[in-house]
Amino acid sequence: MSLLEIDNVTLRFGGLVAVDNVSLRVNEGEVFALVGPNGAGKSTIFNLISRFYDPAEGRIRFDGKDLLKHTADQVPSFGIARTFQNIELFEQATVLQNLLVGRHRHRKTGMLSNIVFSPKAYREELRHREAVEEVIEFLNLQPYRDKMIGGLPYGVRKVVELGRALASEPKLLLLDEPASGLSVEETQDMAFWIEDIQTQMGISVMMVEHDMGLVSAVSGRVMALSDGKELATGTAAEVQSHPAVIEAYLGT
Ligand code: ADP
Ligand code: MG
């Protein structure tokens, strides 16, 4: 059984078929990449997994459960975390506070028990803090820990987004263009982190990425899409040399 199973999924926006009969599997411990020109339907597939949209047709199963029977706000509780193509963080909060938001799915005690002191709430809060401090250390975010997101450079915000997703301790991490806008050095760091996330933490990763250097370095399998359709799936080298993929990129 694969961790994520997408079968024959189609999604239309009016007359536009954004995702056209796509099937894919993400196995446990795998890094799976989606590549393809702008508008290919890559982010829409993430939005389908996140349950922001209902597919017109098809099945989406995660960890043996039918995701289509659940709502978007239930998805994180299954162990699916994501980053967004356009960073979505709380600008007026610190790095630490944004990462604590990532712990939301693990919170058992409500707001009231955090206000009215109880040893149980205190112990739980301590556990969340420890988990977040580990993420801060892993991503070298110590210098920014208590800084407001609003004032941070783009590259650091990108890392904080990864951190917020990691803080939730997911089984599957969805990364939408993790290297876009990053320098060569920052992209290198991102590659190391993705490798560690897979190998040390045992988290499966599905990523959308244009940087084929990064895709080749970290992905097991790659699916190329164009106009919502699968063009080819295989290793990065196989996909890049596939005639349909070359044609789609040349726009012929
Ligand atoms: P990409 O592969 O670049 O991530 P997207 O998945 O964002 O592509 O978009 C796929 C297609 O669906 C594009 O043509 C895009 O304009 C369209 N699209 C995406 N989201 C919406 C939406 N909410 N409403 C209408 N059209 C959309
Ligand atoms: Mg996109």
UniProtKB/TrEMBL annotation:
InterPro entries registered for this protein in UniProt: AAA+_ATPase, ABC_AA/LPS_Transport, ABC_transporter-like_ATP-bd, BCA_ABC_TP_C, P-loop_NTPase
Gene Ontology CC entries for this record: plasma membrane
GO molecular function, one term: ATP binding
PROSITE patterns in alphabetical order: ABC_TRANSPORTER_2 (PS50893)
The entry's keywords: ATP-binding, Nucleotide-binding, Transport
One Pfam family in the UniProt entry: ABC_tran
Keyword ATP-binding: yes
Domain of life: Bacteria
Protein name: ABC transporter
Organism: Sulfitobacter mediterraneus
